[in-house]
Amino acid sequence: MPCFLGIDVGTSGTKTLAIDERGKILADAVEEYPLYSPKPLWSEQDPDDWWRAVVATVRSVMSRAKLKPAEVAGIGLSGQMHGSVFLDKHDRVIRRALLWNDQRTQAECEEIERRAGGRKKLIKLVANPALTGFTAPKILWLRNHEPRNFAKLAKVLLPKDEIRRRLTGEYATEVSDASGMLLLDVARRCWSKPLLAKLELDESLLGRCYESDEVTGTLTAAAARELGLTTDCRVVGGAGDCAAGAIGNGIVQSGVLSTSIGTSGVMFVHSDEVKIDPEGRIHTFCHAVRGKWHMMGVTLSAGGSLQWFRNALCRELKAEADRRGCSVYDLLAAEAEPTPAGAEGLFFLPYLSGERTPHADPDARGCFVGLTLAHGRGHLVRAIVEGVAYSLRDALEIIRGLDVPVRQIRAGGGGSRSPLWRQVQADVFGQKVVSLNAEEGPAFGVALLAAVGCGTFKNIQEACTATIRIVGETPPRRSAVQAYDRGFPIYRQLYGSLRDDFRSIAGLAR
Predict the structure, then answer these.
(1) Buried-most residue among 5, 304, 413, 426 (CB within 10 A)?
(2) What CA dihedral angle connects 118, 120, 126 and 130, to 10 degrees?
(3) Which letter, b or e, does each residue of 433-454 get, where b requires 16 or more Cβ atoms within 10 Å of its Cβ?
(4) Those residues with Cβ within 8 angstroms of residue 18's Cβ, 6 or more apart along the chain or in another chain
(5) How many CA atoms lie within 13 A of 343 on its CB side?
């Protein structure tokens, strides 16, 4: 019986899982690695750490599931989007990769818009404005700030595609992840030759672009030996983590929207047609479904905001959780539960890494607003969760404003496991949120794509129908909806009130 691996090269670690031909998860494994911040708002990782994690997790899954090498028919790849792996002509990594949440490239974003003839013309070329997290500004940053390294540059790959290269020897990507490089003609699903020319970048720097379920190669003998697999194992295009997570949540038809709360937060809606926000407040990317697209809003620090709070301010509570054999997040949620909706006038702006949707502002800063002596830790936790939900509602309002139907909201990511996160989302969105049997996110999504690429399912819609079902519902509470409808306009106003101050504060750290 054939099996399929899904590998997700995330920011905090790599997750690998194995599924059988019915979509049943046989085993999974996670391996963490460090993130480097040599300067404020810089974010880098070593691609060698990713590869070591891939090898460790694949071998662990094979052992736990008691799989024989020949049973693994295919691999799907997912990973953090927008990151840049710079390779020389000998395939050596030139420097540590710049990640999606790295904010050093504001000047390069302005350069790209200038070279393209303005923001509106850029959006016409590639469906999106220039944002600091995207890949193209990182390439220009290397050219502007590290010319010796740029002179060595032969290839630029996304994180999951660097793993593909080490698996198959191929320089390749696929349309969903490539959309976030700011170099893809999203409407035509191919590299934008006009923009590359304006930026004076050669197309040879980029890999061949596939659809997400297409086979891009098979394992080399060296990779098969290191992973304990065979050279018959196929590798499909896969997807960027957002599209892969959406596949794992069954977001493969019109009217279905997902929210995913991991380190970042993503609001993702399927579209049968190309629909572009002319103001560039949300992204329009190619979907991992052949011939389809999606719109996406991103909060850079979603679950990451609560993780920061835990790490910075809750060390004694973490020790208590360890003693009690539970998660510190469970204890924090228990403290937040009795706090009324609206946290008694306390707001949190989740801009710890700057922000993307809808402000696209690397200078934005996180803050609590409205603190009084009456507020305790439970209020702070609830305000963080509410602030993240408000930031996702920002994206939802734009999507609704573009007349995109939203008949169902599916919760995914780590936040989907928390009753508090699910309830606050339902209340803030004013719409029922459903949860699914599949909670494994991107790794599960690309394992399904591998099954499609190897012929087990005829397409990804069939694969999702066969493997994903609704197992729970969280309806909104009327009183909470009313409270959040009063609070949301204030939340939105706070960014405008503080924007100039954020810029001045950011200048202090430069």
Answers:
(1) 5
(2) 60
(3) bbbbebbbbbbbbbbbbbbbbb
(4) 3, 4, 5, 6, 25, 26, 27, 28, 61, 62, 65, 67, 72, 447
(5) 27
Spell out the SS3 assignment of 141-197: HHHHHCHHHHHHCCEEECHHHHHHHHHHCCCEEEHHHHHHHCCEECCCCEECHHHHH
Tokens linked to 42: 């810089």
Q: What residues act catalytically?
A: 241
CB 256 within 8 A of CB 95: no
Contact status, residue 305 vs residue 385, Cβ threshold 8 Å: no
Residue partners of 270: CB distance under 8 A and separation at least 6: 246, 251, 252, 253, 254, 255, 256, 257, 287, 289, 292, 294
Pairwise CA distance, residues 508 & 510, whole Å? 6
Mind spelling out the 3-state secondary structure of 395-457?
A: HHHHHHHCCCCCCEEEEEEHHHHCHHHHHHHHHHHCCCEEEECCCCCHHHHHHHHHHHHCCCC
Q: Cis before residue 358, ω within 30 degrees of 0?
A: yes
Distance CA 294, CA 263 (A): 21
Strands 13-20 and 3-9: antiparallel
What's the rounded Cα separation, in Å, for the pair 393 and 390? Answer: 5
- Do 312 and 305 contact (CB within 8 A), yes or no? no
Rg over CA atoms, the chain: 22
**Selection from 156, 174, 172, 441 nearest residue 286 by Cα:** 174
CA 503, 508, 509, 510 dihedral sign is positive
DSSP state letters, 61-84: HHHHTT--GGGEEEEEEEE-SS-B
- Give the H or E element holding residue 390: helix 377-401
Q: Structure tokens of 103?
A: 């904010």
Integer Cα distance of 141 and 210 in angstroms: 27
Asked if residues 393 and 425 have their Cβ atoms less than 8 Å apart, the reply is no
Residue 94 to residue 290: CA distance in whole angstroms: 34
All residue ranges of the chain with pLDDT < 50 are: none
How far apart, in whole angstroms, are the C-alpha atoms of residue 463 and residue 250?
9
Interacting residues of 325 by C-beta distance below 8 A, sequence separation 6+? none
Instruction: Provide the whole-model pTM.
Output: 0.87
Per the CB < 8 A criterion, the answer to whether 84 and 98 are in contact is yes
Give the Cα-Cα-Cα angle 251, 278, 433 (nearest 5 degrees): 30
Amino acid found at 263 = T
Angle between helices 328-336 and 419-429 (to 10 degrees): 40
pLDDT in tens, 438-466: 777 899 999 999 999 999 999 999 999 99
